[in-house]
Design goal:
single chain, mainly alpha, globular
Length: 244
Amino acid sequence: MLPALLLAVSLAILWRVMRGARRPRQRRWPADVQAARREQYRRWAMRPVIAFLLPSVVALALIGRLDALVVLPPEFRPAAAWIGPLQLSDAVLFGAGLAGGVLGTLVGTLWAWRRGKRGLRGPMLGDPGALLPRHRGELPYSAGVALAAGVTEEPFFRLVLPLLIALVTGSAVAGFGLAAVLFGAAHRYQGWAGVAGTTFMALLFTALYLGSGRLWVAIAFHVFLDTIGLVVRPALTGAWRAAP
């Protein structure tokens, strides 16, 4: 009964977040533009803490499963069998290779794009809008948003939602599948390309988590990939300049 209630509450929280999600856009800032931007970045970083991390910790505490933050729950073993066991070193190596490939592809694509001089945005999957830093003074704040996203979203989408669904339905596979779809839907403010891309990344993070049995592996690569999108890419496309 309690897992079903917590699942309903978690889905209600997610629904509220999704209804309120809008693509962050540039707006008319007050006279002190930089202070207003810094405050907005702090809000973007704190929202997932309140919406995802705190409810996740509370839900795990209520069902007596806080250990799931560091130990793969037994309910996930059938789903993990689909992936196959990975040694931690193998998971890290796989993730590092993936991250290196993403970064190398990004650099090569941006190099070709910059030679074409098509503006400062460059190629990307999805549109995070005003989340992108405009100059180097905002890069640390966008890095904070990337860190917050990985640390807060992974416990919610890769652990709590699948675990509660597994406890209610008996199927961890269904739990991870639904959580991946909801993860993509939660990024609908980035457009359909963003939804497709984040859904794919959700499946990848799930594979890293189940294969290694360690949630922090998925968190680490989530943070890394978000850092590429919100810090590295903007810096390469012109954000590494002084504020106007």
